[in-house]
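Hello,

I think I submitted the S-adenosylmethionine job twice by accident. Can you confirm which output corresponds to this input? Input:
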Amino acid sequence: MNIAKDWKDYEIIDMANGEKLERWKNIRLIRPDPQIIWKDKLFPRQWEKVNATYKRSSKGGGGWIYKSKFPENWQVKYKELTFNIKLMGFKHTGLFPEQAVNWDWMISKIKNAKRPIKVLNLFAYTGGASVACLYAGASVCHVDSSKGMVSWAKENVTSSKLQDKPIRYIVDDVVKFVNREIRRENKYDAIIMDPPSYGRGISRRSMAI
Ligand SMILES: C[S@@+](CC[C@H](N)C(=O)[O-])C[C@H]1O[C@@H](n2cnc3c(N)ncnc32)[C@H](O)[C@@H]1O
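Support: Only one job matched these inputs. Its output is below.
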């Protein structure tokens, strides 16, 4: 396992009882994580200083409980990449910080290739990997079936000052898009895929925005 150890704006402060206490820049969150099976907190006092907690409901789902006035969104930086964070339903923040090791790996592969690299990012979500590949000098085709997630990815690209770099945003079902690319004989040097356990296609016709 590779550890994402170069973060300054993100850290896991403590973990216990199926929950983790995290710092996202200056905001502290408690979020559920079923992999945390041990009971004892290392730093019990730290858990009192929290800005929001995601509580699961016994009826399924859950919601955020805010302890103080809370920003609608804020930014975290990883090296020279900037991401916009928002609290979402189902405990999400719009970023998976553990992916930073993969971003570093992609950046080094692209930079070391010493030739133009075309990346296809499938299930691309809010664009963590797209931002990293653009930053490294690749051209990126970013595909996700959620228009909201693609808009969020655009915000991350702009916040990272990469808006003038070559990226194509596609709101479409991955299978439909890939089949079209195969028919068009479009080729890529690298394909990134991080599919969810349950896929969700698009109901309307596909569109590039
Ligand atoms: C787990 S997230 C990917 C996380 C991302 N790789 C990252 O590290 O930031 C899954 C994404 O897949 C998208 N998605 C789910 N089913 C899809 C489908 N059939 N076609 C395209 N996108 C899909 C969702 O909208 C969501 O944004």
